Amino acid sequence: MKRKDDKKVTQIFQAALRLVAEKGLSGVTMGDISREAGIATGTLYVYFKGKDELINALFAACRENSVQVSFKGYNPQIPFKPAFKNIWLNILRYKLQHFEEVIFMEQCYHSPFITNDTREKALQLSAPFYALMERGQKEQLIKQADVGLLLTFIIGAMNELVKQTHYSSITLNRSKINTAFDLCWDALKA
Amino acid sequence: MKRKDDKKVTQIFQAALRLVAEKGLSGVTMGDISREAGIATGTLYVYFKGKDELINALFAACRENSVQVSFKGYNPQIPFKPAFKNIWLNILRYKLQHFEEVIFMEQCYHSPFITNDTREKALQLSAPFYALMERGQKEQLIKQADVGLLLTFIIGAMNELVKQTHYSSITLNRSKINTAFDLCWDALKA
DNA sequence: CTTTAAAATGAATATATATTCGCTTATATT
DNA sequence: AATATAAGCGAATATATATTCATTTTAAAG
Predict the structure, then answer these.
(1) pTM above 0.85, yes or no
(2) Per-residue pLDDT reduced to its tens digit, A48-76
(3) Torsion (CA) B137, B143, B148, B151 in degrees, nearest 10
(4) Is A189 on the interface with B (CB under 8 A)?
(5) What is the spatial distance between Cα B50 and Cα B42, in angstroms, rounded to a whole number?
(6) Is residue B144 within 8 Å of residue B137, measured between CB atoms?
(7) Each residue of B47-81: pLDDT tens digit?
(8) How far apart are the CA of A161 and the nearest CA of chain B, in angstroms?
(9) DSSP one-letter code for A83
(10) Contact state of A113 with B158 under an 8 Å Cβ cutoff
(11) How far is it, in rounded angstroms, from Cα A135 to Cα A74?
């Protein structure tokens, strides 16, 4: 017997991401995805029950990936500011390299495709970020404001930065990245 | 003879905004819009050539509105920081009160509906914001970084703040708003 | 009050898209 | 090597959606 091919799921995801980033969620059909992935339309239905399931699975996969990558190299022994900068850079790098995911996630959030269940699970993955900010507050390094507010501020600014970078084809060199981090840090610091 | 009804355009726009904010751009049909607006589907085509034209017109209208409102009460005589805060609050208030527009604009940006021409025109309306930041730099009050970067940071953070506020049904009281402004100002200040 | 031209209608049509299904092909297992 | 079983296919089908159009309603103009 033949087995399902893990690589094919990756192909399908990549195709969907590319297309959504290019045309928006509303402009992408199952036919488009299969063509871009280099497989038959029917094959999509071997891997996913339908469009809804495909989109939800991709959403969940993107979210997990991005959280995973964020804390790479994190060690509570390291002083807060460099540890925070490391995470901030991890996220920024990830988003720049996976721009399509940024757009995809944004487009999905307000769409009939994503189920509440999927949304819930994505939210739960944010816990480590809350914990990080609380550490910074305990050490009196960052403002004693609502942690959700602080995170919102940082993530919103970064997302917009990533989007603008792609729209305007500005290259985000090391100097600009450091400036952006300084804006972020100056905003947070107590 | 009968005349076209300006109020009807507003109804159509409001209906489209409500629906897109609720279901996302991909989940909204011309039938949905006409039903929500309380008119027949055919009537939509009296006012707009088709879905594309409707979406582009709404996008342009939203953008114009929001820029218009931002500078309400601006006067170059007023010192920079309070003038800036006034504009920042104008934008925040507008976005909170017109949440649907925030979602609609975001969903539109990466979609096949919006034409390059529409996108261009929207961009041109940003000129006054660039000028404002340059004033702040001349007066040595804010960082001498790329103005685009500074604006990106502010707007991104604010958009996310507005979205999070709605998702989590947190009420953004005066104290939280001031905290958010302080984050923003501390990020910018020289 | 009548005329007239355009708005308004919504069922009918055209089009686009998701999904299914009978068939073929590939590959694990024996 | 033979067999079995699921993947892979893509044309056909079902469904959803945009758009048109013959008809009715509305209100401005004479």
Answers:
(1) yes
(2) 999 999 999 999 999 999 999 999 999 99
(3) -90
(4) yes
(5) 10
(6) yes
(7) 999 999 999 999 999 999 999 999 999 999 999 99
(8) 6
(9) H
(10) no
(11) 13
